[in-house]
Amino acid sequence: MKIILLGTGTTLPQKNRNAAGLLIQIFEDFLLFDCGNGILRQIENSGVDFTKIKFIFISHLHVDHISDLPILLKAILMRGELNNIKIFGPSTIKRRIEVWFTEIYSYLNKILKKIEIEEFNQNLIETRNWKVQVFPVKHGIEAFGFKIIVDNKKIVYSGDTGFCEELIEAAKNADILIHECSYPTALGKEGHTTPLEVGQIANRSEVKKLVLTHFYPECSGQEHEILNDIKKMYNGEVFLGQDLQDFEL
């Protein structure tokens, strides 16, 4: 199992950080979590063939987590590989995608006949090789995190969230927790987590490894302080995620 951080930033442009996106390879399957602006280019930069992505999970409908989805689908269509793609997301995602390809980009309406769209009406998506459990998080709009289970390994991706008991429960004893860390502690904002809060979440969840992502520009130059605040709460291994960094389990 291989994890690639495609984008560790946000909507605001940063030279070294793309908007949100996470790719996980499980045997022959490629699972994409979030698809913000620039993610198609990042998939190409990662060396992965974008036409191999057949499972797409959208944590919430903010633009920096979904804006490259129509671009990705068009690119796969142009390669003649747009079949058996399943897209999962919050309520209204099906209607929004249908609007894209019937009203806004109507010349691409054939895409709708080649994809499956499912809203999160149950909390478990399961195949022969992996399971993805969906759980609600706190972000001001309908938003979700994901627990990915392969054999006895567990990865948890927070999506965008404030401090959240549901996430702590889902992340119990995870091998890797990929968690947003949007702002330094002194600049924390509702709907996002500060380093102190992330450290508390990782400590209570007893995760083996913590990977930070979703950094706003305010975090630039504050990396030492961010790590110090997390270490006040959590003694495990911590990584300040970088675009195209990968981890293997």
Sum up the structure in keywords:
249 residues, single chain, Metallo-beta-lactamase, Chain A, alpha/beta
What is the gist of this entry?
This protein is an alpha/beta fold and 249 residues long.
- CATH architecture grouping: 4-Layer Sandwich
As laid out across the biggest beta sheet, the strand order is 6-5-4-3-2-1-14
Q: Give the integer mean of the pLDDT values.
A: 96
Could you name the CATH topology? Metallo-beta-lactamase, Chain A
Kindly report the name of the CATH homologous superfamily: Ribonuclease Z/Hydroxyacylglutathione hydrolase-like
Number of helices: 6
How are helices and strands ordered from N to C? EEEHEHEHEEEEEHEHEHEE
Strand content: 25-35%
Q: Number of DSSP strands?
A: 14
Q: What distance lies between the first and last C-alpha atoms, to the nearest angstrom?
A: 5 Å
Q: Which outline best applies?
A: globular
Backbone CA Rg: 17 Å
- Secondary structure class reads alpha/beta
Q: Fraction of residues in helices?
A: 10-25%
